[in-house]
Design brief:
By secondary structure, the protein is α/β, with parallel strands linked by helices. The protein folds into 2 domains: about 250 residues, UDP-N-acetylmuramoyl-L-alanine:D-glutamate ligase (3-Layer(aba) Sandwich); about 270 residues, TIM Barrel (Alpha-Beta Barrel), CATH 3.20.20.70. The chain is built from 21 helices and 20 strands. Strand 4, helix 2 and strand 5 form a beta-alpha-beta unit.
Length: about 650
């Protein structure tokens, strides 16, 4: 069995040390000099492990420093989103958050630059180490790189003394970066090993207090001062009784809980996973996260090694560091089902679990005023003799109405378009509303996208918090050629949404082009699921009875248990009709709310665009109608 932990602790593990914002080049096979765009994530070995262990179900925290600026706030917010306790993160008013820039030239060359000149995390000191906080965790994880500077060295050693005095476990990631020890220039961030007796002697002083030591063969060499791996392991064993984990790249790992055998292969091993190398950066942090998940749960060492190997395989097959570490659901899915792909980033089933279990949280209820209408509002403006330019300020009034009803409460949102809704989107952001934006060309059948068919290029400009909305007039009894064309368009959009990291809401309206029976909409959804289209949300028309909703709900649960759910559309129905439709959805857990438009805004739009009422009256009328629907929904779903 793996080593156990001390008395009951509030946290499973606290990591200490580096924290950066990683900017990784998105053009694969390119020199860093030629990179034109970067993907952003939280980085730094201990920060990655804090995120990785949280994703795997452990209660984790990190002790580090970030700057008092936007990147520091990003780190705070992302750590919180990942479930990492943030009370150990100190905001440094004088220094900037450190940065890392990297490109992937090929499967063996990963040029990177550490921007760490007097950065925030390099100023971590003993004053940042709170005794009560360190003692609240079952284990403490320290990293080799943060022993390279006296200030950081003292901070980690203080944390180790506290952990040891409180009967906590001490974990050590050797994490050797020669240029951060001053052994290589700024442009040599990729360098993994330079022999140094000075570094070896320094690291040896850390080993006796450790309960778990993890490193690659090169890292074991530097820790022991020997370039023969067996000799190095035996040297480490002479200094420490810790469980030693040797990372061996494609060969997985070997674990040595006691005496070092005469062959590396005679250590305890877990299941290995042959994987195509995409980017090795971050693989070790994912590996350590997986090992800790097992080790701190007292799993057998073989299981710990299997978790570690699998997590490392995920990371090495993907681009970034912390964002690529699997969640517990994802790891269990992989261990149960495996993958036909050596490049795990190409496995749609696994990627869906990864996306669904790492996307940003959303409120359990969604009540939205849909004001993404273009053609309908243009017609109202034409009838009123008003120029189309007046539509944009009217949409801002609609957002103000939502804000009045929401009054700062979560679970409220809007659907807004790019054509007339740009300024209204800024208002919605200030109010903290959920926002979905349409991509479809209004009224198109077969489906066409508005402005451009290259949706991927368009989505790059959208905030990550905005949800893609696409309406398709799709009926399961349509001609096969029409269904195929529309489904292929939705499939293209789905792939773009996943590639660019945006949530997707698919709106299906069957009733405009055929009869709707109890199984019509459920059949439509089943056909789209069969093509691998798994949107985060569905937006569906009201159904005649609970049986129809039962059919829809069964299809969703059978095909995608991670679906966020359904929002109900209005189709300009009278309020009484919507109230009856709301009542029909009661008791169906997948139905999360509504997104209603013309029922709320049509009357106000007609009067305001005709100059019959002012801004205040228009806003009040829409707020009143929206509030009425919110109350009806809440009563029917109490």
């Amino acid at each position: 069995m793996a080593s156990g932990t001390g008395s009951k602790a509030a946290l499973d593990v606290i990591t200490v040390g580096r924290c950066s914002v990683d900017l990784y080049g998105q053009q694969i096979g390119s020199r860093l000099e030629d990179i034109s765009s970067f993907a952003k994530s939280v980085g730094g070995c201990p920060s990655n492990i804090a995120i990785g262990t949280a994703r795997l179900g452990l209660k984790s925290a990190v002790i580090t420093r970030v700057g008092d600026e936007q990147m520091g706030r990003y780190v705070h917010e992302q750590m919180a989103r990942e479930g990492v306790a943030t009370q150990g993160i100190t905001t440094d008013p004088q220094r900037l958050t450190s940065l890392v820039l990297l490109s992937v030239e090929n499967d063996k060359t990963f040029p990177l630059i550490f921007y760490r000149d007097n950065c925030a995390d390099s100023a971590l000191c003993e004053a940042d180490i709170d005794e009560k906080f360190v003692a609240s965790a079952a284990a403490l994880l320290v990293t080799g790189t943060h022993f390279a500077r006296p200030l950081n060295d003292a901070a980690q050693r203080k944390a180790m003394r506290i952990a040891k005095a409180n009967g906590r476990k001490i974990c050590f990631d050797i994490d050797y970066r020669p240029n951060l020890w001053g052994l290589a220039g700024h442009g040599a961030g990729e360098e993994r090993y330079i022999k140094s007796d000075k570094v070896s002697e320094h690291i040896k002083t850390v080993l006796p207090d450790c309960d778990l030591i993890v490193g690659t063969e090169e890292e074991v060499h530097i820790a022991a001062g020997s370039e023969d791996t067996l000799t190095a392991l035996k040297t480490i064993r002479s200094l420490s009784s810790a469980t030693i984990v040797l990372k061996r790249g494609p060969m997985g790992c070997a674990v040595y809980p006691g005496a070092i055998p005469n062959r590396l292969e005679d250590g305890i091993v877990g299941q290995g996973f042959p994987i195509e190398v995409y980017n090795v950066l971050g693989a070790g942090d994912a590996f350590f996260s997986g090992f800790l998940r097992g080790w701190l749960k007292n799993e057998p060492l073989e299981t710990c090694a299997t978790y570690a190997n699998a997590c490392g395989a995920f990371a090495v097959s993907r681009l970034l560091c912390s964002p690529e570490i699997p969640t517990w659901d994802e790891l269990q899915y992989f261990l149960k089902h495996g993958s036909p792909h050596k490049a795990l980033r190409k496995d749609e089933a696994i990627n869906h679990v990864h996306w669904a279990t790492t996307r940003r949280e959303q409120p359990p209820k969604l009540l939205a005023l849909a004001i993404d209408h273009r053609i309908q509002l243009e017609a109202i403006a034409d009838n009123a003799g008003a120029p189309h330019e007046r539509i944009a300020p009217f949409k801002r009034l609609a957002i103000a109405a939502i804000g009045r009803v929401a009054n700062g409460r979560p679970g409220f949102g809007t659907l807004l378009d790019d054509t007339y809704g740009r300024d209204a989107m800024f208002d919605a952001a200030k109010l903290g509303l959920w926002v979905a934006r349409p991509l479809e060309q209004p009224g198109s059948r077969p489906l066409r996208f508005e402005f451009t068919q290259d949706v991927g290029a368009r989505l790059v400009e959208w905030p990550v918090t905005h949800t893609i909305k696409c309406l398709a007039f799709y009926h399961p009894d349509d001609p096969a050629e029409l269904k195929t064309e529309q489904a292929q368009k939705l499939r293209t959009l789905y792939e773009a949404a996943r590639k660019i990291g945006r949530e997707l809401l698919v709106e299906i309206i069957c009733g405009k082009h055929g009869s709707v029976k109890d199984d019509t909409v459920s059949r439509a959804l089943a056909e789209l699921y069969a093509l691998g289209i798994k949107p985060d949300w569905w937006k569906l028309e009201p159904q005649a009875n609970a049986a129809a909703w039962d059919n829809i709900e069964n299809v969703i649960k059978a095909n995608d248990p991670y679906c966020r759910g359904i929002v109900l559309l209005g189709l300009d129905a009278p309020e009484d009709d919507l109230a009856r439709a709301f009542a029909t959805t009661a008791g169906h857990s997948t139905i999360k709310g509504f997104a209603v438009g013309r029922t709320i805004f049509s009357g106000a739009a007609e009067s305001w665009l005709a100059g019959k009422i002012d801004d205040t009256k228009a806003t009040s009328e829409m707020a009143e109608r929206f509030a009425n629907l919110v109350n009806v929904w809440n009563k029917s779903h109490a």
